[in-house]
Design a protein that fits this description.
The chain is α+β, with helices and mostly antiparallel strands and 115 residues long. It has one domain. It is 36% helix and 9% strand. The protein has six helices and four strands. Strands 2-3-1-4 form a four-stranded antiparallel sheet. Pfam families: DUF179 (PF02622).
Length: 115
């Protein structure tokens, strides 16, 4: 679960920029009761909370090592993009990088391969 509201709990993710109204803090994890209450009371919108499916887990230092090895493509983007991501976010970001990354953006997604 991703969100940009401290009152929903979770762990604040360190970002390279300072939060602004246009680019809020990013939190991982949520107090579902707090989020549901705020949505019910209309002090928050359903779109303030982004649910992700799947599992990602790393041991201590593993992700840093994978980044150093070039196993991941790091992209500078505003936090607001993660909270309001269009369905084709990965493809859009890869295309903006150009070159070989733009070519990768044409690869079918795992969901498309399973169909």
């Amino acid at each position: 679960v991703l969100h940009g509201r401290a009152e929903f709990g979770g762990e604040r993710v360190a970002t390279t920029n300072f939060p602004t109204a246009d680019d809020p803090s990013l939190f991982v994890g949520v107090d579902l009761d707090a989020a549901a209450r705020a949505i019910y009371d209309e002090t928050a919108k359903q779109t303030d909370v982004v649910f992700m499916s799947g599992v990602s887990a790393w041991s201590s230092g593993q992700l840093d090592n994978e980044l150093k090895q070039g196993s991941w493509v790091a992209v500078k983007a505003p936090v607001s993009l993660a909270l309001n991501a269009p369905g084709e976010l990965w493809q859009d970001l890869m295309r903006t990088l150009g070159g070989e990354y733009a070519e990768m953006s044409c690869m079918p997604s795992m969901e498309e391969e399973e169909e």
